[in-house]
Amino acid sequence: MCHRMIKNFHDRLQHDHQSHDSQISNTRSFKSCVYFTNWAVYEKKHFPCDIPYEYYSHIFYAFIAVDPLTGKLKFTDEWCDLQMPLKSLVPGETVLGNIQQLNQMKKLNRQLKVCMSIGGWGTHTQFEAVVQDPEKQHSFVKSVVEFVEKYHFDGVDIDWEYPKNLSQGKALANLLKVLRHALPPQRLLTIAAPGGHEHIKQLPIKVMDQYLSFWNLMAYDFSGLGWSEKVGYHSNLFGNNGDNDMCADSIVKAYTKHGVSPQKLVLGMPMYARIFSGVQEGHVGSKFAKTDKEDTLGYNKIKDILGNAKDQNILEHGFDVKKVAAFAYNLKTKQFITYDNVQSAKIKGSYVKLHELGGGMWWDSSGDRPISNNCKDNESLVYHFVDQLGGCKALEDSQNSLH
């Protein structure tokens, strides 16, 4: 985005904020969504009840898998999904597994919807097997409906990463059509929608849109250790990120260009950083070293690292106001960190409100910092994002399904 357009955006935020707040608060509400990963219960000791559920309207349970031999759904970890003894949030009840604890949370917040997310990274062959065989697709759809009914999910999220050609894109659209007709009308149907333009162009977006409740836009991972040529921001809102021309704003425009209503677009944001190693110059566009080191870090762990580095006067950190991206560079380790911070969350919340998008989505719940009772001390991303929307009272208030 050119500097003039960026300036216009910030000017509109500054001068039209109050009138726009008044208009929106009387006409609509926002979605605040987050993915919960079932494996977070192990190393991270992060459980569903750790999610500040009053700040969310939707939780997506990741992931449910597909058996490519039969097309039926299967749990990726039955122990944590259904059997692990967990804290009960309701007196007198016993809780076994993440899904049961999530259902307790729905009782405590009747506006909280819990949807199962099917697929995830590296599972594209599961979907390919289903759409290529009518019998497997029939089994898949039947299994989805059974899971929704048995485990009281409020909806289904399809995370096929990614259809690799127009034929597979058409097959995904047909799968969504069949699912929509099979599911009860009150149940949600969404997808984790790609941000890369090469992936977007494989999708018949107009056709898909008529079957979807809303789109979760994966507006992150624009750059990364495993696929980038240069250091880049991984979730910038505007402009070239240093490695390529991707930004969240361009993704939103790509979908609206194909006829999707802004109110059906939910802006995805990361609760984690991406790390580039071997960076000799501490800025985007620099060269970096390809390594096998872990290249992601939860947002809630960044402060510890930044604090340690500050003590040694070896850290450069800042915020790119024009592109809306936080970054840090360690002069000693030669690591460049790109992430969303509180300032990012505030600006993206204002962006969602200004452009009347459907809301925001985060990957994933284990990465946020706790919400403090003292507003001034809050470093939670979802807290500041929701605050920009108008607070919890601005969130979608349709009721969930308990049965």
TrEMBL record:
Gene Ontology biological process: chitin catabolic process; polysaccharide catabolic process; sporulation resulting in formation of a cellular spore
Enzyme Commission no: 3.2.1.14
Boundaries of every GH18 domain copy: 30-392
CDD domains: GH18_chitinase
InterPro entries registered for this protein in UniProt: Chitinase_II/V-like_cat (IPR011583), Chitinase_insertion_sf (IPR029070), GH (IPR017853), Glyco_hydro18_cat (IPR001223), Glyco_hydro_18_chit_AS (IPR001579), Glycosyl_Hydrlase_18 (IPR050314)
GO molecular-function term, one example from the UniProt record: chitin binding
GO cellular component: extracellular region
PROSITE patterns: GH18_1 (PS01095), GH18_2 (PS51910)
Catalytic reactions of this protein: Random endo-hydrolysis of N-acetyl-beta-D-glucosaminide (1->4)-beta-linkages in chitin and chitodextrins
Alphabetical keyword list: Carbohydrate metabolism, Chitin degradation, Glycosidase, Hydrolase, Polysaccharide degradation
Family stated for the protein in its record: Belongs to the glycosyl hydrolase 18 family.
Name of the protein described by the UniProt record: chitinase
Lineage of the species this protein comes from: Eukaryota, Fungi, Dikarya, Ascomycota, Saccharomycotina
